[in-house]
From TrEMBL:
SUPFAM superfamilies linked: FAD/NAD(P)-binding domain, FAD/NAD-linked reductases, dimerisation (C-terminal) domain
Source organism: Lacticaseibacillus saniviri JCM 17471 = DSM 24301
Span of domain Pyridine nucleotide-disulphide oxidoreductase dimerisation: 331-433
The protein's name: NADH peroxidase
Leader sequence segment: none
Length: 450
């Protein structure tokens, strides 16, 4: 059997890896439009801050290593079109501009997404960057040490935007962080957490300009000089656009069924509207465990799960994509947070009723001093009011307690309730935590509140 996999990031990589693990004799052709396979954009902050020294190591695999395993890896070659009836693709060689036709038995599309470009005047000026991919990583690294760069504007207050803002604040630049929504990280955390993080960002030379819409970019001699919103103008020698992503699917609109956001429509087995064609990654929806519906959750973890499930289905092992809870985590200067599932701030958009309980504790027992690392921890548990079913959670501290959110993710997927969590068995050792895990504390408090 011949399988063509398009795209080398999380979903594409895991598809290839899954096929190799189960049936290494399969003929696999793996295509990457760029010149570098499996770059991890989620590792960019570590590279830009110097934690990782070599940008070429921020990857899952090398072309040479995969070829040694029998995979036919093609870089700088683009799948220009798909003929689903003929089971063929047209391949464009970006080096010499030639084209050829390749046949397939199964085709897996990890088309991914591209940074959303704001359709406003001046968006073609120089020094308007994105924070996605190896090429942008190299350009951004040079800007962190540019002595002529003083003012940076980051557009988008999600994970990528906050990472970019922190990178340049640590590099000594003044950073303005602009977002249309009222709170930075508002899609990931409720106010109890974002208020603290906003104060932390302000204390570290980041100015959050929230609730503002971009109107235009001003420039001089072809380079950006400021960003104009509906509420003000902000100087900028560098702009980083991190205001969402757009599915990279325009080239598929005449081949596959796409939704009104350009996402590829797939079934539970990741099959598209065309026979023997599968899709994974940021250009698809995933089943969302808290609601039972489907959501767009562009996380590497989800793409990799899809890739492994796609591999199973390609090889004839009929397997449904499991529901996910959308667990994620990030550090913002001294704080570490994680969230999963439904938040109070996102419940209305999902059309569900929720209740929540917010608790504050210390990581360790009171006899352990703050000097010894015993700091506050903040936790919010969200649940269904009618039956106490767990729907989501958020946790934050200056100690890294983010792994607790994995327990909430499992609770969501296992349809557990407050009663299940109130006295669930978690270990205790005073060098690490308290006799009652903060998850126990929150569930017990929620039961008292009912």
């Amino acid at each position: 059997m011949k399988v063509i996999v398009v795209g080398s990031s999380h979903g594409g990589y895991e598809t290839v890896r899954g096929i190799l693990a189960a049936h290494p004799e399969t003929e696999i052709q793996w295509y990457e439009k760029g010149d570098f396979i499996s770059f991890l954009s989620c590792g960019m902050q570590l590279y830009l801050e110097g934690v990782v020294k070599d940008v070429n190591t921020v990857r899952y695999a090398t072309a040479e290593g995969m070829r040694a395993q029998g995979v036919h890896v093609f870089v700088r070659q683009e799948i220009a079109s798909v003929d689903a009836n003929a089971h063929t693709v047209t391949v464009k060689n970006l080096v010499d501009n030639t084209t050829r036709t390749e046949s397939y038995d199964k085709l897996v599309l990890s088309a991914g997404a591209v940074p959303f470009t704001l359709p406003v005047p001046g968006n073609d000026l120089k020094n308007i960057y994105a924070m996605r991919g190896r090429d942008w990583a190299k350009k951004l690294k040079l800007k962190t040490v540019d002595p002529d760069l003083q003012n940076v504007v980051v557009i988008g207050g999600g994970y990528i935007g906050v990472e970019a803002a922190e990178v340049f604040a640590k590099a000594g630049k003044h950073v303005t962080l602009i977002d249309m929504i009222p709170r930075v990280l508002g899609l990931y955390l409720d106010e109890e957490f974002t208020d603290t993080l906003t104060d932390t960002m302000k204390a570290n030379n980041i100015y959050p300009a929230t609730g503002q819409a971009i109107k235009q970019f001003n420039g001089k001699d072809g380079a950006v000089t400021s960003v104009v919103t509906d509420q003000g103008e902000y100087p900028a020698e560098l702009v980083i656009q991190a205001a969402g992503i757009k599915a990279n699917t325009d080239w598929l609109k005449d081949t596959l069924k796409l939704d009104d956001h350009g996402l590829i429509e797939i079934n539970d087995y990741l099959e598209t509207s065309a026979p023997d064609v599968y899709a994974v990654g940021d250009a698809t929806l995933v089943p969302f465990a808290p609601t039972g519906g489907h959501s767009r959750i562009a996380l590497a973890t989800n793409a990799r799960r899809q890739g492994r499930i796609a591999a199973k289905n390609v090889l004839g092992d009929k397997t449904k994509m499991p529901a996910v809870s959308g667990a994620s985590a990030l550090s913002v200067f001294d704080y570490h947070f994680a969230s999963v599932g439904v938040k109070a701030g996102t419940a209305d958009g999902l059309g569900i009723n929720t209740q929540s309980v917010f608790v504050t504790d210390t990581v360790q027992p009171p006899f352990v001093t703050e000097d010894a690392g015993n700091v506050p921890v903040y936790f919010k548990l969200t649940y269904a009011p009618e039956d106490g079913r767990i729907l989501g959670g958020q946790i934050m501290s200056k100690r890294d307690v983010t792994a607790n959110i994995n327990a909430i993710s499992l609770a969501i997927q296992g349809h557990m309730t407050l009663d299940d969590l109130a006295y669930a068995d978690f270990f205790f050792q005073p060098g690490f935590d308290r006799p009652w895990n903060i998850i126990n504390v929150a569930a017990q408090q929620a039961l008292l509140n009912k």
